[in-house]
Amino acid sequence: MLCKTTSPTSAMIAPAIKDSQRDFRTVLPNTTPELARDINIKIGTDYKNSPVRVEYEAKVTALNDQLEQILVKNNGVITEADAKALYEARRSLGIEFKDQTPTPLRDFIYERNITKYDGDPLGPTWEWMMDNYDGDYLEITEAAARPAGDVNLELAKFDTWLANQDVEYLLQSELDILRGN
């Protein structure tokens, strides 16, 4: 037996759309402070213990094994090629894990790095490392195999930075987080 169905009319659909819009607007924050606070809650403030950070630090620390192998192979000497290889391995890890970081936090880190590392959003360049460590290849490789100190302190100004972003950026960030970006 076939049932006769009727197509919904615009009079039937309009109240449902209106109700869904009202629900949508009451569920999502819609002011800059509310959006910034909501994003900050979703990302959290214990960056050091986030799963992405824990995995990143483990892989950075594992570079010590490569450093030890180099030291054994070269009777305690680190060459420029060795130092560059370990530096590049660390930089690659930084890129890989920044790509896994929520978009607004990643943008903050990029801005912080640009200021801290003479214009490079990814972190210290080879030239910066050479200048900062006076060309000491051992110090450069040790730094490459050592995670940053207090990440929570380094990123403590994220909430203030986020609160100063425009509403369009915050809305896009909210969407990115909901999509897993």
Descriptive report:
The chain is an all-alpha fold and 181 residues long. It has one domain. Helix 3 runs antiparallel to helix 4 and helix 4 runs parallel beside helix 7. The N terminus is likely disordered.
How does the helix and strand content classify structurally? mainly alpha
Pattern of helices and strands: HHHHHHHHHH
Low-pLDDT stretches: 1-25
Helix percentage:
55-70%
Q: Can you count the helices?
A: 10
β-sheet strand percentage: under 5%
Computed Rg: 24 Å
Integer average pLDDT = 87
Largest beta-sheet details:
none
Task: Write a concise synopsis of the structure shown.
This protein is mostly helical and 181 residues long. Helices cover 68% and strands 0% of the residues. It has one domain (36-178).
Write a concise keyword list for the protein shown above:
elongated, 181 residues, 68% helix, mainly alpha, disordered N terminus
Chain-wise SSE layout:
Elements: H1 10-27, H2 32-43, H3 51-73, H4 80-98, H5 103-116, H6 126-132, H7 137-144, H8 151-154, H9 158-163, H10 167-178
